[in-house]
Amino acid sequence: MTIIRWMVGLAALSLSQSAFAHGIAGNRYFPGTLTFDDPAVADELTIGSVEFQHPSEDGGLVTDNIVPVTFMRLLTPDVAFGMDTAGIVRNRSNFPPQVGFDNLDLTIKAMLFRSDPHEILLSAAITWEVGGTGNSAVGGAKPDILWPGIFYGKGFGDLSAGLAWFRPFAIAGAVTGELPTRDTTAIVGVDPTTNRFGLSRHACQTSCIGGLRSNIARST
Predict the structure, then answer these.
(1) ∠ at Cα 196 (89, 104), nearest 5°?
(2) Distance from C-alpha of 115 to C-alpha of 44, rounded to nearest angstrom
């Protein structure tokens, strides 16, 4: 789901069985954000609502109203399996609205390290975006993509008395990659470029990239 998946991954409602699901290490709370997942591993259900605008091929503006749904279930105390997708309503100038689902994502996420005294959480995940499972009219015409990621959180509550002013702060972030497994994917459905039903092939619009996203947040 390219950029959209990371923007809306944990956007609105989060139901969990324990406080640890929210990313707590010692007295530090690490929430998920609109740009990256939190470093916790837990049972979780997330439902969001996001509006995303981007240019169209003809120079106009495309507005996507997105409802992402993410489900995560613990397999062990430190390993979880998850699935997510998003329903999308796409509005373009001079075109009727198009409705469909983005590709299905399958995720394995594991806790690598946790320290309550030092307020540290570190986890890793690998996500498989299953190519061709989405609707090509709303951007689902993408090949299989692997998304490896490292998610981290570090609070500064363990600093010495001389650095006490920095104790209320923490840093959290993610290092993620996007690795397409092939150049094209085959889609059965309505081709948005021709508005004809049939089998079509779509080139991958992404390349093998890595990104670093982090933020600094004051504790509450």
Answers:
(1) 45
(2) 22
Which has the minimum average pLDDT: 4-13, 44-53, 188-197?
4-13
Query: If we measure between CA atoms, which residue out of 58, 67, 126, 125 comes closest to residue 92?
Result: 58
DSSP state of 193: T
State the pTM of this model. 0.70
Reported as a pLDDT band with limits 50, 70 and 90, residue 150 is very high
Query: CB neighbours of 81 closer than 8 A, spacing ≥ 6?
Result: 72, 73, 75, 106, 107, 108
Which amino acid would we find at residue 127? T
Contact assessment for residue 129 and residue 109, using Cβ atoms and an 8 Å cutoff: no
Distance, in Å, from the CA atom of 94 to the CA atom of 212, rounded to the nearest integer, reads 37
Whole-number Å distance between alpha carbons of 40 and 72 = 11
Structural contact between residues 115 and 100, judged by C-beta atoms closer than 8 angstroms: no
Compute the distance between CA of residue 3 and CA of residue 178 in angstroms, rounded to an integer: 10
**Residues 6 or more apart from 15 whose CB is under 8 A from it?**
44, 45
CA-to-CA separations, 103 to 56, 62, 79, 150, in angstroms, rounded:
20, 19, 23, 22
- The pair of structure tokens assigned to 69 is 């749904």
Split at pLDDT 50, 70, 90, the class of 112 is very high
